[in-house]
């Protein structure tokens, strides 16, 4: 059984998730900033980080990547369509904001290239390619525990923005309707910002999805 710990980090409070198994081995998903705060959290719950997974490469989800990678000596995974975004402040969006530093982190160690069941550092999940918010956005579906970590694709009562680099509204809606809302009704969906939700709740109440 997996436990999920959420920690909002960085200037826009993006959710970082620690997905931890019974041996306290953990995946770090989207370390978006405040590396020392994240490390304190990891220590406080006794987690043993095994890898960093990124739902996408926008600055608010990657700022602490190198800090955490170097602390624990663990690999970083991202979708191949955003492999070069980690090093490019224009693509990852940090250059857009004059009150933020240009963010650039080292290249990922591994690339997601196709959908389907994957095993990373002892964790098994279904990788869903969910583009629209960005071209390489992915969601991690841990089907046995009915958990999905979806980045900025879908929110409680909202959907991801598509006015950033290579955003696409049609793709976003297709990703949501065909990949996320088709999950089991009571799947816990953990978004990149805000509170968790479920496919059933979003089908019923999300004003961006109701027809």
From TrEMBL:
PANTHER family xref list: HYDROXYACYLGLUTATHIONE HYDROLASE GLOC (PTHR46233)
Keywords: Hydrolase, Metal-binding, Zinc
Pfam name, any one: Lactamase_B
Keyword Protein biosynthesis: no
Species for this entry: Chungangia koreensis
Residue spans crossing the bilayer: none
Metallo-beta-lactamase domain: residues covered: 13-193
Database matches in InterPro entries: MBL_Glyoxalase_II, Metallo-B-lactamas, RibonucZ/Hydroxyglut_hydro
Leader sequence residues: none
Protein name: MBL fold metallo-hydrolase
Cofactor(s) this protein requires: Zn(2+)
């Amino acid at each position: 059984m997996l436990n999920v710990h959420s920690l909002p980090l960085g200037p826009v409070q993006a959710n970082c998730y620690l997905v931890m198994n019974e041996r306290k081995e953990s995946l770090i998903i989207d370390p978006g900033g405040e590396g020392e705060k994240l490390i304190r959290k990891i220590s406080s719950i006794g987690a043993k980080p095994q890898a960093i997974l990124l739902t996408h490469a926008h600055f608010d989800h990657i700022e602490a990547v190198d800090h955490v990678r170097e602390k624990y000596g663990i690999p970083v995974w991202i979708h191949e369509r955003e492999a070069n975004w980690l090093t490019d402040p224009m693509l990852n969006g940090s250059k857009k904001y004059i009150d933020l530093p240009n963010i650039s982190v080292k290249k990922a160690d591994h690339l997601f290239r196709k959908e389907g069941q994957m095993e990373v550092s002892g964790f098994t999940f279904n990788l869903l390619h969910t583009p629209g918010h960005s071209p390489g956005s992915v969601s991690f579906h841990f089907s046995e525990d009915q958990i999905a970590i979806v980045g900025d694709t879908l929110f409680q009562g909202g959907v991801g923005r598509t006015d950033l680099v290579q955003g696409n509204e049609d793709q976003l809606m297709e990703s949501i309707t065909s990949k996320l809302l088709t999950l089991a009704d009571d799947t816990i969906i953990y978004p990149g910002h805000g509170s968790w939700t479920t496919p059933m709740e979003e089908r019923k109440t999300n004003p961006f999805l109701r027809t």
